[in-house]
């Protein structure tokens, strides 16, 4: 079985598990994260519906944009673009606070490795922001996004606990990225349609 065939059921399972997790946790996601969560759930529902072609293309595009905004917003936050530390709605507010937060996820790591991990995560999230918005090889972008978010999920669960995971709704973001990766690219669908039309003619 090709890996693509596993992505859709895996995404649906992770989204369902993420919903159960969010309901069980008293902590609610922040507004921006909540919008991305709604997109992930909507993509899951649309992918289950029959005759979902056009709606699925739209849901896929929306999910990609929402994930891009989430990654881009996180990068902007750690660079102080959204306000300084302590401002409402801001998680870090500057680079130093972000590095300190990264250190909480890697308590065993020496300072140079923590800084390198923080820089690496920032570079990958910045690339994903542009990549997801570009629409180029969106399936691959979804796989990379899901992998990065899964690393965050494991690190957070083993260090800072479930409350922070729930605040960022990480399981639902992983599921949304998997569902994004599971969908057929639009250009492939268009080619198939043209081929059918030519054969019919």
Automatic annotation (TrEMBL):
Keywords assigned by UniProt, alphabetized: Membrane, Plasmid, Transmembrane, Transmembrane helix
Top-rank taxon, per record: Bacteria
Residues passing through the membrane, by range: 7-24, 30-49, 56-76, 113-133, 140-159, 165-182
Protein name per its UniProtKB record: Uncharacterized protein
């Amino acid at each position: 079985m090709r890996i693509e065939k596993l992505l859709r059921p895996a995404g649906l399972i992770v989204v369902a598990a993420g919903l159960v997790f969010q309901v069980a946790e008293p902590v609610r996601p922040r507004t921006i994260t909540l919008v991305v969560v709604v997109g992930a759930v909507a993509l899951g529902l649309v992918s289950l519906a029959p005759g979902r072609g056009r709606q699925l293309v739209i849901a896929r595009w929306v999910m990609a944009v929402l994930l891009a905004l989430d990654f881009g917003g996180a990068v902007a936050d750690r660079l102080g673009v959204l306000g300084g530390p302590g401002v409402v709605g801001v998680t870090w507010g500057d680079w130093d606070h972000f590095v300190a937060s990264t250190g909480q996820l890697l308590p065993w790591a020496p300072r140079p490795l923590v800084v390198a991990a923080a820089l690496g995560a920032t570079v990958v999230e910045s690339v994903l922001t542009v990549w997801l918005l570009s629409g180029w090889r969106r399936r691959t972008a979804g796989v990379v996004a899901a992998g990065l978010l899964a690393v965050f999920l494991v690190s957070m669960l083993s260090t800072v606990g479930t409350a922070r995971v729930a605040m960022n709704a990480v399981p639902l973001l992983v599921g949304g990225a998997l569902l994004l990766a599971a969908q057929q690219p639009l250009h492939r669908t268009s080619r198939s349609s043209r081929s059918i039309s030519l054969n019919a003619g």
